[in-house]
Amino acid sequence: MIKKSLLIIGAKNAGITTKTIIKEAEKVFYKVKYVPLNDIVLKINEKSSEMFYKKENLSNYDYCLPRIDAARAQHGYHVIKFMDIKGMKKPYSAETVLIAHNKFMSLDVLKRAGVPVPETYLVSSIESAKLLLKKMKYPVIIKIVSGFGGRGVMLLENLEAAISVVETLKLMRQQLIIEEYVKNKNEDKRAYVIGGRVVAGYRRKCKKDEFRSNILAGGTAEYITLSEELQDIAIKAASAIDSDIVAVDMLESKDGPKVIEVNINPGLKGIQPFVNVAKLIVEYMASKVEE
Fold first, then answer.
1. What is the arrangement of strands in the sheet containing 140-144, beginning at the earlier edge strand?
2. Roughly how many angstroms between the first and final C-alpha of the chain, as a whole number?
3. Where are the beta strands (DSSP E) in 72-219?
4. Cβ-count burial 184-223 (b if 16+ within 10 Å, e if not)
5. Phi and psi, residue 188, nearest 5°
6. Residue 204 or 134, more confident
7. CA angle centred on 131, ends 173 and 123, rounded to 5°
8. Contact 221/204 with Cβ under 8 angstroms?
């Protein structure tokens, strides 16, 4: 055990993955504290700036592992930005929160870094969406910009269905992503990248009558050794979004692999039975605070 402290921030109640990481962390760090992100208060005045939970100053922890999902990205950005200014060690900066929780922005950053991605469009009006959909090949994928876990992702087989979905979502004032459908074997491959190295990977297969392979959407996991090509792409994607701990989801098509998503708050449910990624995350954090 090392004489260092670890702060983990996330949802109101820690999920299964976070609890698994906490359990592993308590074997290594002498102090592990879990704090609901939205309960963190930031204070600034002419003399100082503070970050606290209840009456505890959180600025003195040796490392912070953020477990920030899309629903808490806005407050998460400000909290991580505060940590950036304080020089607190963590796996990524505040800018990564904005990038990773915006599906279009993340794909744009990946594309600029030379990472292969599907052909993708961002639309903000019904009129522009309809014009685009009339030119698309079907089926197409429509996504909500800030969706996660497979939620807010729809496969549309024809123009009529696509326009109907667009009209409904725009009533909710949702900014939309329209993406080419990458034909594959109804599966994707996920790489877990820690400290610039792929530590584990698995194949996620869709359940019957479902095109999403996410574990939260009912997909099943099969442990595999990723090809060197997929590992190189995953490492490049992690570097592009500037995160030391990230999962990279990829599809293999006739045109080669394409990255469809990066996740800075990855679940471990699918991989943990095969590889103790929680332990690897904790070991990495311990190595950083010992530097």
1. 120-123, 176-180, 140-144, 153-156
2. 16
3. 120-123, 140-144, 153-156, 176-180, 187-194, 197-205
4. beeebbbbbbbbeebbbbbbbebeeeebbbbbebebebee
5. -135, 175
6. 134
7. 35
8. yes
The amino acid that residue 285 corresponds to is M
Task: State whether the Cα torsion 178-184-185-189 is positive or negative.
Answer: negative
Mean pLDDT in the chain? 91
Q: Is residue 160 pLDDT above 50, yes or no?
A: yes
pLDDT, tens only, 231-250: 999 999 999 999 999 999 99
Tokens at 253, concatenated: 């098509």
Question: Which superfamily does CATH assign the domain made up of 185-263 to?
Answer: ATP-grasp fold, B domain (3.30.470.20)
- From the options 3.40.190.10, 3.40.630.30, 3.40.50.20, 3.90.1150.10, give the CATH code of 2-99: 3.40.50.20
Helices 228-241 & 103-112 angle (0-180, nearest 10): 110
Cβ neighbours of 10 (radius 10 Å): 23
pLDDT digits (tens, 9 = 90+) for 115-158: 999 999 999 888 899 999 999 999 999 988 866 555 678 889 99
> Which pLDDT value is given to residue 217?
47
Cβ pair 268, 17 in contact under 8 A: yes
Closest CA to 201 of 250, 244, 258, 257: 250
Interval 80-98: pLDDT, tens: 999 999 999 999 999 999 9
* CA 94 – CA 5 distance, rounded (Å): 21
